[in-house]
Amino acid sequence: MGIATDAPDPVQIDVHLRDGTLASLADDVRKGLSRYPRELPPKYFYDARGSELFEQITELPEYYPSQVEQEILDAAGTRIVELVRPAEIVELGPGSARKTTALLQPMIELEPGGRYIPVDVSETAVQDCAARLVATYESLAVHGVVGDFERHLDRIPQQSGRRLITFLGGTIGNLDHPRRSALLSALRALLGPDDRLLVGTDMVKDRERLEAAYNDSAGVTAEFNRNMLRVINDNLEGDLDPEMFDHVAFYNEHARRIEMWLRAREDVSARIAALGMDVDFEAGEEIRTEISCKFTRDMLTREYSAAGLEPVAWYTDADGLFALSLTGPAAATD
Ligand code: SAH
Ligand code: AVI
Question: Ligand 2: which residues within 6 Å by Cβ?
Answer without folding.
Answer: 57, 65, 169-171, 173-174, 214, 221, 224, 290, 292
